[in-house]
Design brief:
This protein has about 55 residues and is mainly beta. About 5% of the residues lie in helices and about 35% in strands. It has one domain. It has one helix at about 25-30, and strands at about 5-10, 40-45, 50-55. The chain has a three-stranded antiparallel beta sheet, with no helix packed on it.
């Protein structure tokens, strides 16, 4: 019997987050809330186990 491992990226961003202070890139200057990103989060599911890895600041 095989078990399935599922990895889901819940959010992806840069190591510094977005916006980056002092950066003049259009995304970093955007007022749109969809352009604001923090750090990466991952959901790992295997058999009856569920693990969330949150690499927030």
């Amino acid at each position: 019997m095989r078990s399935t491992l599922t990895i889901t990226f819940l959010g992806t961003g840069t190591s510094q987050g977005i916006p980056v202070l002092g950066n003049d890139h259009p995304v970093c200057q955007s007022a749109n809330s969809k352009d604001k990103r923090l750090r990466v989060s991952v959901l790992v599911q295997w058999e009856q186990y569920t693990i969330v890895i949150d690499c927030g600041p």
